[in-house]
Amino acid sequence: MTFANGNHITFVSHGETTLLSEKGKLKLQSHLDREEYVARVLDREAKSTPPEAAKAMTVAIRTFLQQNANREGDCLTIPDSSATQRVSASPATTGARTMTAWTQDLIYAGDPVHYHGSRATEGTLSWRQAMAQAGQGERYDQILAFAYPDNSLSRWGAPRSTCQLLPKAKAWLAKKMPQWRRILQGETGYNEPDVFAVCRLVSGFPYTDRQQKRLFIRNFFTLQDRLDLTHEYLHLAFDGY
After folding, report:
1. Same-domain check for residues 145 and 211
2. Is 226 left (phi over 0), alpha (psi -120 to 50) or beta?
3. Does residue 11 belong to any structural domain of this protein?
4. What pLDDT digit, counting tens, does each position of 65-121 carry?
5. Residue 29 lies in a domain
6. What's the domain range around 228?
7. With helix as H, strand as E and coil as C, how does 141-204 read?
8. Which residues make Cβ contacts (< 8 Å) with residue 189, sequence separation at least 6?
9. pTM for this structure?
10. Nearest 10 degrees: CA dihedral of 12, 50, 68, 125?
11. Residues 50 and 107 in one domain
């Protein structure tokens, strides 16, 4: 098929893709199962290897779809566009379907989710960086936690974050870190975290989730709260030592 801009593609369809006329213009429209759609986007935007990077990417793709698609009855609609998501016109590869099935229904609930081929910023998963992280042995949930520190794994039908953020606590800690760095950087095992989140503790004692890089404290009102936060930060900064 040749498009108006001169681009052309060859693709396979088993009846899911149709050619429509809308306001005098022709357009392609596909009706896809959600997980087949995620797998096709993985094929188009990235690839199915390395596995842990691909798993992280499928969660990001699915989350972006939930956050940005329009609803028409029981269906979700989203344009095939570089401004949203690019989707393969042909059926998904076996590898992409396998990775998508592994993370079926999983999303990363919380703040808006974005991804990019090479650009790495907070709130944006970089495919290039995800591949490097997977090559270093990181799991898909660790890759996601690095890209989206304020979000949590959840299910499509229950998009709730398990981290109730304490932004004032995080801001206080970020202000203190440069002061502490001058004291701690000469200590064995010190490794200042690039990203982290401070979350409200529902019950129990303050603790650190090292894998997700999250500090859980009761609140941020008292001196004891600041001491708890400092204590948990040190656990994270000296992780593995």
Report:
1. no
2. alpha
3. no
4. 999 988 887 788 888 888 889 998 889 999 999 999 999 999 998 888 999 999 888
5. yes
6. 167-237
7. HHHHHHHCCCCEEEECCECCCCCCECHHHHHHHHHHHHHHHHHHCCCCCCCCCCCCEEEECCCC
8. 238, 240, 241
9. 0.70
10. -150
11. yes
